[in-house]
């Protein structure tokens, strides 16, 4: 069977017309809450970014935040493969579902699944081949046009949804990814798709999210999980983010928060918001010294 995954949320989360979609992506990059400029010409050599956290709401809300990660990725050569992990919002499919073969279409073209890397991942008992979980899930799909904008459609992808986001599960998924990267010898970037706090007042959401982001930036994986559970943090993709943190820590990376804001900063209504953050993890990434409220000042929009 030839598995081709057509867009499920084109025309909703982002534009379905190719030219309009390109304009929207450029709007995200140039937005005041985004990088403020379009990506420059790529540098030479595979870069230092190992993994990243990137949001997945409609582009008019989270697109400028997401653009910070893709702006950073655009400064380095394209990887061979991007492993994209997202939460399972639909409740369909297996606990950890890998789209193991075929391709994904977007208005910008088609991206092939890295079937070789997928086969290595399936050697782990925690990951199962499953397509139902991906049928209507948006958290991975919305990352693809950004990837195509900066790298084209020649890179390959490995889509994984996580319905089971427990700490032990995330640890096992990370171990499977690490083994697959080492065994394949491929140049791989791992993307964790997640929004932050959902549907709380702006100040409350920001306070909780900044605490979580400090743990994420410092690669404190177990503490992040405990914080999510104890504080009932409504961050939807903490499992994928823990995986990205674990992979980065294994390969000697450090974390850096690039941007945080809420939907209230976009639309002006701060009574009921969702938080969006972009974080990169990599080698040689310089983290500014942050004391007390300096973290809040450094990542809030100016």
What does this entry look like structurally?
The chain has ten helices and twelve strands. By secondary structure, it is of the alpha/beta class. Helix 1 crosses helix 2 and helix 7 runs antiparallel to helix 8 (238-250).
Briefly characterize the structure.
The chain has about 300 residues and is an alpha/beta fold.
Question: Which structural traits does this protein have?
Answer:
globular
Mean model confidence by pLDDT: 93
Order of helices and strands: EHEHEEEEHEHEHEEHHHEHEH
Number of helices: 10
Q: Give the tally of β-strands.
A: 12
Structural class: alpha/beta
Query: Could you give a short account of the major beta sheet?
Result: 9 strands, mixed
Measured by DSSP, the beta-strand proportion falls in: 15-25%
Sequence-ordered SSE layout with sheet pairings:
Layout: E1 4-5, H1 18-30, E2 49-54, H2 59-73, E3 81-87, E4 96-98, E5 103-106, E6 109-112, H3 115-121, E7 128-129, H4 144-151, E8 156-162, H5 167-184, E9 188-193, E10 198-200, H6 202-217, H7 221-230, H8 238-250, E11 254-262, H9 263-267, E12 273-282, H10 294-299
Parallel strand pairs: 1-5, 2-9, 3-8, 3-9, 4-7
Antiparallel strand pairs: 2-12, 4-8, 5-6, 10-12, 11-12
Helix pairs in contact: 1-2, 3-5, 5-8, 7-8
């Amino acid at each position: 069977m030839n598995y081709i995954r057509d867009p499920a949320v084109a025309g909703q989360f982002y534009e379905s017309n190719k030219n309009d979609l390109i304009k929207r992506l450029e709007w995200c990059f140039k937005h005041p809450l985004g990088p403020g400029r379009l990506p420059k010409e790529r540098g030479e050599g595979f870069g230092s970014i190992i993994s990243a956290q990137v949001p997945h709401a409609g582009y008019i809300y989270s697109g400028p935040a997401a653009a910070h990660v893709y702006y950073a990725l655009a400064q380095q050569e394209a990887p061979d493969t991007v492993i994209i992990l997202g939460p399972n919002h639909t409740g369909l499919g297996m606990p950890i579902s890998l789209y193991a073969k075929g391709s994904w279409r977007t208005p910008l073209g088609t991206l092939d699944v890295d079937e070789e890397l997928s086969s290595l991942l399936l050697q782990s008992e925690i990951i199962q081949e499953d397509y139902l979980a991906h049928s209507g899930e948006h958290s991975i799909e919305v990352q693809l046009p950004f990837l195509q904008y900066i790298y084209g459609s020649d890179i390959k992808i490995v889509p994984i949804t996580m319905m089971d986001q427990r700490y032990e599960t995330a640890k096992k998924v990370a171990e499977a990814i690490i083994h697959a990267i080492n065994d394949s010898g491929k140049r791989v970037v791992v993307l964790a798709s997640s929004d932050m706090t959902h549907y709380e007042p702006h100040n409350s959401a920001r306070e909780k999210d900044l605490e979580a982001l400090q743990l994420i930036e410092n690669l404190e994986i177990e503490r992040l999980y405990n914080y999510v559970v104890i504080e009932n943090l409504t961050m939807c993709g903490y499992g994928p983010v823990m995986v990205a943190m674990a992979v980065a820590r294994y390969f000697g990376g450090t974390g850096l928060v690039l941007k945080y804001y809420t939907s209230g900063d976009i639309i002006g209504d701060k009574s009921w918001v969702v938080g969006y953050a972009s974080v990169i993890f990599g080698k040689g990434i310089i983290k500014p010294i942050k004391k007390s409220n300096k973290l809040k000042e450094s990542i809030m929009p100016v």
